[in-house]
TrEMBL record:
EC number: 2.5.1.25
UniProt keyword terms in alphabetical order: S-adenosyl-L-methionine, Transferase, tRNA processing
Entry protein name: tRNA-uridine aminocarboxypropyltransferase
UniProt source species: Pseudomonas marvdashtae
One Gene Ontology term of the molecular function aspect: tRNA-uridine aminocarboxypropyltransferase activity
Domain of life: Bacteria
């Protein structure tokens, strides 16, 4: 028998995160393109980001037929948040000019690369990256390398850089509650043995 799910955050009703999800405005438009394998992931951080930002959209798929329309938003310059040798580090907005449409692929690194491969228009976008040295709060997963962040953490860091001094830290509240819940469910001893470096 399956547990009753919250239709909004997709968490079991008993662990609904909706009271913690903020409703934040941003100058930046965020377009999250989620690989289908992430939808039912227990820590679906892209969904949390999309729910918490008023100027965000989450689309699930592998091939996005609607990409030309999605990327051509008047008043926005589309940029792909994904590493590359020629990627430009994000910087705070100047007093004038277009805002960014920040396109964020969501999935494992392998699945995210597959999304780019299957959507040439996506792969052709100018790329931007986060400043070095971001430390993930995602204590349940071994990061593939330094600076590897969950999707919601990457979005928060990007928005804090672009829209300084505005703060988007509230987006991390449901994410942190999710992690605390997972740690509580596995038990402190198991957590320490597997993730605590003990």
């Amino acid at each position: 028998m399956s547990r009753i799910q919250c239709p909004r955050c997709l968490r079991p009703q008993s662990h609904c995160l909706c009271p913690l999800i903020p409703s934040l405005d941003s100058r930046t438009r965020v377009l999250l393109l989620q690989h289908p394998s992430e939808v039912n992931h227990a820590l679906n951080t892209a969904r949390l980001a999309a729910l918490g930002l008023n100027n965000a959209e989450l689309i699930v798929g592998e091939v996005f037929a609607d990409l030309p329309r999605l990327l051509n938003q008047p008043g926005y310059q589309a940029r792909l948040l994904f590493p590359a040798d020629d990627a430009q580090p994000l910087q705070a907005y100047g007093p004038s000019g277009d805002s960014l449409l920040l396109v964020v692929p969501d999935g494992t690194w392998r699945k995210a690369r597959k999304l780019l491969h299957m959507n040439p228009l996506l792969a052709a976008l100018p790329r931007v990256t986060l400043a070095e040295g971001g430390v993930s709060r995602y204590r349940l997963r071994k990061a593939p390398g330094p600076g590897a962040l969950s999707t919601v953490e990457a979005i928060v860091q990007a928005l804090q850089t672009l829209e300084a001094p505005a703060s988007f830290e509230l987006l991390l509240k449901p994410f942190e509650a999710l992690i605390e819940g997972q740690i509580a469910a596995m038990g402190e001893e198991t957590y320490q043995k597997n993730h605590g470096g003990g």
